[in-house]
Design brief:
The chain is mainly beta. The chain contains no helices and nine strands. Strands 1, 2, 3, 4, 5, 6, 7, 8 and 9 form a nine-stranded antiparallel sheet that branches.
Length: 118
């Protein structure tokens, strides 16, 4: 395999009730790139203190709730969630996620459960 080409990891980097995430090993340490397989959605609402999240919908459809506004999404759409804004998402879709700076546990504030997960 060429060092410049990355394959989808065989094993999920993280799993939650409604999704699985796969971290691509990239050389640039200023951001992270994930493939997210959404089966139902994120189980909580979160606020990221410092990280921006950029989601590209590869397949499927669903919705994001960002700053208490519901936004329907489908394949081909890009969702740009800045830091300090509450959000969640749900649906059945494959997402490409870019996080900058890279995710760290202390960054995330969980504010409440997503309604489908209650």
């Amino acid at each position: 395999m060429n060092k410049y080409i990355k394959k989808l990891p065989q094993k999920a980097t993280f799993t939650q009730i409604g999704l699985s995430g796969y971290l691509f090993p990239v050389q640039n340490k200023n951001f992270e790139i994930y493939f997210i397989k959404v089966k139902r959605g994120h189980d909580t609402f979160i606020i990221s203190k410092k990280c921006s999240h950029i989601y590209f919908v590869l397949t499927g459809k669903g919705y994001f709730i960002i700053d208490n506004k519901k936004i329907n999404v489908k394949a081909g759409m890009l969702v740009d969630v800045p830091s300090k804004v509450e959000y969640t998402y749900a649906g059945t879709m494959d997402l490409l996620l870019i996080i900058t700076p890279p995710w760290f546990k202390e960054n995330e504030i969980i504010t409440r459960k997503n309604s489908w997960a209650e």
